[in-house]
Write a structure and sequence with these properties.
- There is one protein chain.
- By secondary structure, the chain is of the alpha/beta class.
- The protein has one domain.
- About 20% of the residues lie in helices and about 25% in strands.
- Strands 1-4-3-6-2-5 form a six-stranded parallel beta barrel.
- The protein is globular, with a radius of gyration of 17 Å.
- About 5% of the residues have low confidence.
Length: about 120
């Protein structure tokens, strides 16, 4: 009985760790729209955004699906490839770049699935 409970705790911890890794927000900006998984438009106003994004300096800071993005140098290191659109109507996701980490987060929860 005791062994089974320890196995359950271990399995739970492993799953939690894997969920953080698989939902990290490491992004790579591509040149062509056809190469992107997500098309993004950068808004001038926070109130227009679906997601407020903070650019992290370190890969380890970009954890979860909460708007903390780390821009990778190589496409192979990224979780998502993004293309910056010139027009709002072409985008899947409208973002606003924040100056502070604490401002990052979703404003439109119905679009959260886009970054999973």
């Amino acid at each position: 009985m005791k062994k089974k409970s320890l196995q359950f705790v271990f399995l739970t911890l492993v799953l939690l760790l894997l969920s953080n890794i698989s939902f990290s927000q490491k992004v790579y900006s591509v040149r062509y729209k056809s190469d992107a998984k997500v098309k993004v438009y950068v808004s001038k106003y926070k109130s227009d955004a679906d997601l407020v994004v903070y650019k992290c300096k370190y890969k380890s800071d970009a954890i979860g699906n909460s708007g903390l993005w780390y821009f990778c140098e190589y496409k192979s290191d990224a979780d998502k490839t993004i293309y910056f659109c010139d027009y709002k109507s072409d985008a899947n996701l409208i973002i606003y770049f924040a100056d502070y980490k604490s401002d990052a987060g979703w404003r439109n929860n119905s679009k959260k699935h886009i970054m999973y």
